[in-house]
Structure formats: structure tokens, C-alpha cells
Amino acid sequence: MIILRSVLFNIVFYANLILQMVVLTPFYFLVSRKTALIVPKNWARSNHWLLEKMVGTTFEIEGLENIPEGGYIFAPKHQSFWDVFALLPWLSDFFFILKRELMWIPLFGWYVQKQRMVPVDRGARGRVMTAVMNRAKEEMAAGRQLIIYPEGTRRPPGAQPDYKYGIARLYRDLDVPVVPVAMHPGLFWPRRKFLRYPGHFKVRILPAIPAGLDPDVFLKTLLDVTEAASDQLLIETVRNNPHLPLPPTAVQRLKELGFQR
């Protein structure tokens, strides 16, 4: 049954993406940039509904009161494609720094260009990176939220942390708070797999780390608070969803934490 539900969900998920992108294109490009955010936010909400009705996966968010006003860096754990869209409805005016090649994709590239996403050549140095930082500062000064995944790429639940120093440089140069986010959607929507598992999990938005710390102190603080919350949520999620098949990284981490399933 899980296989069948997963196959059907994946078909409907991508059909929903294409359908909404095509049908809502006239609205998206006729309204103002910020009004157009209704489209990706509603797409995210529709995916939550599909995941609940077709797979039986639900979630709740704790700590919305920790989200500050104005510009800040939003720094969630990254385990799944779910992370890319799921929290967009709770951010007022988000943007990404993304690979410039994504801007060349027909229709999708036009969508992200309208939202003033910041493209970057990952191999670039010097003037190019200075231009990227200047663009990011402009967007941040307008009160927007930069979404950055501190570990850079998707990692399985329970994996040893691998935080990149790039977020510390952004924190220093942009001079804004950073909001850490702990969660384990990768237990329900695993990376590089088509299976989707039913159950319930929490997203925990942690208190913002204020601007102005030494970058090294900031990075250690970010890692410590995020991983402590992640460990707590891993135990809680596994305890409340005993049916879940666990990746080896999660099994190993639970053993290190002294949790017996």
C-alpha cells in the first residue's frame, strides 16, 4: 500500500506543479512581485494537503513566535525536497541564492527571476561573488528573508553534522539575525527515494541568533543549538512513529543517544 500511495502521490505532486505553473502564469506575471508570492505559497499548501490525504503524513510547527520582523537568514536542516517548499507560507518575502543555470529553465527561470532570486556561478570568485553579496544585501535591506541550508546539501536524518563556513560569511557580511530550524522530514520523504511514509513530525523554529557575533562563535552556536534540537526531535519522532523504517544514520545516532526503539 505504501508503494502504491507513493507512486500516486509523486505523479500528482509533479502534475500539480506543472498545472499550477502553467495555469497561474498570467496572474503571476501581471501582478506585483510580492503579490505573486501567493502562487508558490499556495502551491506549498496544496502539497501539504496532498501529502496528508494521499500518504497520511502531517506536521506541526513550533516556535513561530521566534521569527523576527524584517530581514534575516532562515537556516533549516536539509534532508528532503520537502524542505525546499514546505515552510514558504510562513515567510513573508523569501529569496534564495541559487545556481545560475536554474535561471535558464523555461518558465521556471522566469518565475524565479521575477522574485529577484540571486543567481551565482558556484565556481566564481572575486568580483562575481562581490556582486552576489551586494545583491543579497539589497534584498535583505528590503526586509526579505534569505533561505540558506547550513550543510549545503541534503543529508539523511541522524547524519553527522557538516556545516559549511559559507553561512558564517553571509552572517558576518549581511549583519542580520539567523533563525535555526530543526526537523526530520527526511524520515517521511527520504532523499533520492520515491517512497513516502505516513506519520506525524514537528518542525521546531529556534530563537534567532542575533547579529554581530564573531563568525566562528556564530557557527558553533548555530551547530550546537540546531543539533541539540535535532537530537530531541529525532527521539520524539521515532518514539511517536514506531512503524517508520530508519536509515542507518538515524539508527546509529539513536544508539549514540542511548535510545532503544
Any overview of this molecule?
The mean pLDDT is 93. Helix 1 packs antiparallel against helix 3 and helix 7 crosses helix 8. Strands 1-7-6-2-5-3-4 form a seven-stranded mixed sheet. The longest helix is centred in the last third of the chain and has 26 residues. 44% of the residues lie in helices and 14% in strands. The protein is built from nine helices and seven strands, in the order H-H-H-E-E-H-E-H-E-H-E-H-E-E-H-H. It has one domain. It has 261 residues and is an alpha/beta fold. This is Acyl-phosphate glycerol 3-phosphate acyltransferase. It comes from Pararhizobium antarcticum. One of its GO terms (molecular function) is 1-acylglycerol-3-phosphate O-acyltransferase activity. Keywords: Acyltransferase, Membrane, Transferase, Transmembrane, Transmembrane helix.
- Give, in spatial order, the strands making up the sheet with the most strands: 1-7-6-2-5-3-4
Q: How many strands, what sense, and barrel or not for the largest sheet?
A: 7 strands, mixed
Q: What portion of the residues fall into strands of 2 or more residues?
A: 5-15%
Along the chain, the helix and strand elements come as: HHHEEHEHEHEHEEHH
Provide the gyration radius in Å.
19 Å
Number of helices: 9
Question: Outline, from the CA principal axes?
Answer: globular
Tally the structural domains.
1
Question: Which structural class should the secondary elements be placed in?
Answer: alpha/beta
| Count of individual beta strands | 7
- The percent range for helix content is 40-55%
Please state the average pLDDT score. 93
State the separation between the terminal residues, measured CA to CA: 24 Å
